[in-house]
Specification:
This protein has 707 residues and is of the alpha/beta class. The protein contains 27 helices and 28 strands. The chain folds into 4 domains: 113 residues, PAS domain (Beta-Lactamase), CATH 3.30.450.20; 162 residues, Reverse transcriptase/Diguanylate cyclase domain (Alpha-Beta Plaits, 2-Layer Sandwich), CATH 3.30.70; 238 residues, EAL domain (TIM Barrel, Alpha-Beta Barrel); 119 residues, Rossmann fold, CATH 3.40.50.2300. Helices cover 43% and strands 23% of the residues. It binds ligand C2E and magnesium ion (MG) (2 copies). One magnesium ion binds next to loops.
Length: 707
């Protein structure tokens, strides 16, 4: 703006004055006495749409309707730009084009002296675009791109305003932290657009649950926060929560499929649970985690007890930061056994943390914390080093070579330095890459299948083995994983735990084994604790096992001792030829004793128990042909027991007995295919003999049914 320093020269030369005006890239107006326009430049004509002759002599309000200084001495009260003698107008100011179109301008004012006296020279810049850009930037800085909802910035601002209001009018403000349950699994396999549509759909559902004065914000992929203002009571939030849950739970269509989403909600309420925005947000999040721990799509208000947890958590976090340095961590190894040969064929490295202040902390607690804080990167690298070095040492000591499996957390898996770290660790330890296995959970892969595939291929190129951990918990379809370079699939412990007595679990376990084999993957069952689980899965083709039944995880030295012993997994002996085992299950031991004696005399092998769960275990472990079960038992009724058995072991012949001829019950059992025959108690010995013999004939005929 140095151009304005030439006031005296302007007076000297009209021509120069004119040239100068025309040399401005922006519109210029010179305003003289009584706010009349003395002259304008050509650029003014282009921008404003007026001819010079149309404006000269007219009041400046015609083109700048407001805030143009009314008096010339006004300028004297405003600070001039140093060095230029000009002044930037302090207010938002608009100009009018011919035809009435209004646009924002930046105006620069300078006093000049003309031959006609004192005047103001105003240079004008159209700042519509600039304003739009600023608005756009502001919008982006404050909103979630996908849904257009406020982001954390704006949310914090809005909660801040709500708190000021609440303080003045003695009201409450509730902060609801909402986490969609298993959302990434839900979205797995959908394309980008479909995913976006679903997120937008959820966003508008949430908005529809609250008033205009409330704020719905999106803080992450599956995290939303709602701030409810003007509440009178703490419980007022519960009504909205009910609405939110109903609305979110409403089925979502995904192509041809219709699925349900559920959510966890944590709530903190001003002023009791915090007087500051950040505290309220943090406490609502803590409450949400508590709701998640409890499971089952629910909500949780923040409580003082939860606040104690925060303290514990903070202490734990502090200790965790020091744990490696203080040598509080160790790696234990749990054997993995082949279900054909009974030999050990690998082991899983499991991290242990023993802290002087906290005692032994479960990995289920500290691993997620390490993950959240990023500490998992150095810790995970240390586990890799330790596992590879130990494995190499065992090999050097002459033990048969086998793979050590190391768990990778999501953060490690997505860490760009992972491949380099693994390469280095393998090199430093001297372990061949095929003896390192990496366990990756199903959820990590499902989150972003495309990038996961690229990552897995890169890892596979190193020559390591890859297994998919906790399989079955992520709702993923195995066919999604067809192109993934996995070698092994670890069936989640939750199926193993119930496999002998829950037909649903058994069916899933069986289909996981069949599908995995189809994809040329080996299957390992984790968490096998009983002989029943072992036999059931082994007989159905599971390849490997890991679990307390054989051994817990052991410190490196004890594990090496186990290797040296060469202990194998023993399998129950299978009877050859046709089965002649009978299971008698009755809550009266005396009745069992009588029946068992009669049947043994006939040459049958007899198993007996008074409890249903023992019955399941016996059935899983032994090849039993005929089952005699009382209908009335403590714990589980006989019909339920037999109908589960019919699905778990469809080849068995099942006979129900009861002292009461409860026809409804019997009819139901027969209709459900649970029983072959019904006998009334007390049973004569001869009736028992005849019926068991017939049942075995039936069993032989129906044998080919089973797998
Ligand atoms: P995971 O990888 O699924 O490991 C198997 C868990 O099952 C281990 O729990 C193991 O001790 C336990 N387990 C094994 N056999 C049985 C059994 O027969 N019955 C029962 N009830 N449990 C059994 P742990 O050691 O508490 O580890 C829990 C989780 O922590 C692991 O689950 C894994 O996800 C994580 N973890 C452990 N070590 C590491 C590590 O070094 N890095 C990472 N990223 N995660 C780790
Ligand atoms: Mg694992
Ligand atoms: Mg697992």
């Amino acid at each position: 703006m140095e151009k304005f320093n030439v006031t005296s020269q302007l007076r000297q030369s009209e021509a120069m004055y004119h040239n100068l005006l025309e040399s401005f890239p922006d519109p210029v107006i010179i305003v003289g006495d009584k706010q009349r326009i003395l002259t304008v430049n050509r650029r003014f004509e282009t921008v404003f749409g007026y001819n010079r002759s149309e404006v000269i002599g007219r009041p400046v309000e015609m083109v700048i309707p407001e805030h143009f200084p009314h008096r010339l001495d006004y300028l004297g009260e405003c600070p001039l730009n140093p060095g230029t003698g000009s002044m930037r107008h302090p207010l938002d100011i608009f100009a009018l084009r011919k035809g009435g179109d209004k646009f924002p301008i930046d105006i620069n004012l300078s006093p000049i002296e003309t031959v006609e006296g004192n005047a103001i020279i105003a240079t004008i810049r159209d700042i519509s675009e600039q304003k739009q850009n600023i608005a756009q930037l502001e919008y982006q800085a404050n909103h979630d791109r996908l849904t257009g909802l406020p982001n954390r910035n704006l949310l914090e601002d809005r909660i801040g305003q709500a708190l000021l209001q609440a303080e003045r009018f003695q009201q409450l403000v509730a902060v609801l932290f909402i986490d969609l349950d298993r959302f990434e699994f839900f979205l797995a396999g959908l394309n980008h657009d479909m995913r976006n549509e679903i997120v937008k759909n959820i966003a508008s559902r949430l908005q529809a649950c609250v008033r205009k004065s409330d704020t719905v914000a999106r803080l992450g992929d599956d995290v939303f926060v709602i701030a409810l203002s003007h509440l009178q009571e703490r419980e007022d939030a519960a009504k909205v929560i009910q609405k939110i849950q109903n609305s979110v739970n409403h089925p979502v269509e995904q192509g041809l499929q219709v699925s349900e989403i559920s959510c966890y909600i944590g709530i903190s309420v001003y002023p009791k649970d915090g007087r500051e925005v950040r505290t309220l947000l943090k406490n609502a999040e803590v409450a949400m985690f508590r709701a998640k721990e409890r499971g089952g799509s629910c909500f949780q208000y923040f409580t003082d007890e939860l606040s104690d947890r925060i303290e514990i958590r903070m202490t734990m976090e502090r200790c965790l930061r020091q744990a490696l340095e203080n040598k509080e961590m160790s790696v234990h190894y749990q054997p993995q056994m082949d279900l054909q040969t009974g030999r050990m064929i690998g082991c899983e490295a499991l991290l242990r943390w023993q802290n002087p202040e906290l005692g032994a902390v479960s990995p289920g607690i500290f691993i997620p914390m390490a993950e959240r804080t990023g500490l998992i990167i150095p810790i995970g690298e240390w586990v890799l080093e330790k596992a590879c070095m130990d494995n190499k040492r065992w090999q050097t000591a002459g033990h048969p070579p086998m793979a050590v499996a190391v768990n990778l957390s999501p953060r490690q898996f997505w860490d760009p330095g992972l491949v380099k770290t693994i390469t280095r660790v393998l090199h430093d330890s001297g372990l061949e890459s095929r003896y390192l296995e990496l366990e990756i959970t199903e959820s990590m892969v499902m989150r972003d299948m495309e990038n996961a595939l690229a990552m897995l291929r890169e890892l596979k190129e190193l020559g390591v083995q890859l297994s998919i951990d906790d399989f079955g918990t992520g709702y993923s379809n195995l066919s999604h994983l067809k192109s993934f370079p996995f070698d092994k699939l670890k069936m989640d412990i939750s199926f193993v735990r119930d496999v002998t007595h829950d037909p649903g679990c058994a069916a899933i376990a069986k289909s996981i084994i069949a599908m995995a084999h189809n994809l040329n993957l080996r299957v390992i069952a984790e968490g096998i604790e009983t002989e029943g689980q072992l036999s059931y899965l082994r007989l159905r083709g599971c390849d490997e096992m890991q679990g307390f039944y054989f051994s817990k995880s052991l410190p490196s030295r004890d594990f090496e001792r186990l290797l040296a012993e060469g202990r194998r997994l023993e399998f129950p002996k299978e009877s050859k030829g046709p089965d002649i085992s009978v299971l008698v299950i009755d809550d009266e031991p005396k009745i069992i004793a009588i029946m068992a004696r009669v049947l043994r005399q006939e040459g049958y092998r007899v198993f007996s128990t008074t409890k249903a769960d023992e019955g399941f275990e016996l059935l899983a472990t032994n090849r039993i042909g005929v089952i005699l079960s009382d209908l009335r038992m403590p714990g589980m009724d006989g019909i339920e027991f037999l109908s589960r058995v019919s699905r778990l072991h469809p080849e068995t012949v099942r006979i129900a007995m009861s002292g009461y001829a409860d026809m409804d019950m019997v009819t139901e059992a027969i209709n459900r295919g649970a029983i072959y025959k019904f006998l009334t108690k007390p049973l004569g010995n001869e009736v028992l003999r005849q019926n068991i013999a017939k049942a075995f004939q039936h069993f032989q005929i129906s044998l080919p049914h089973e797998q």
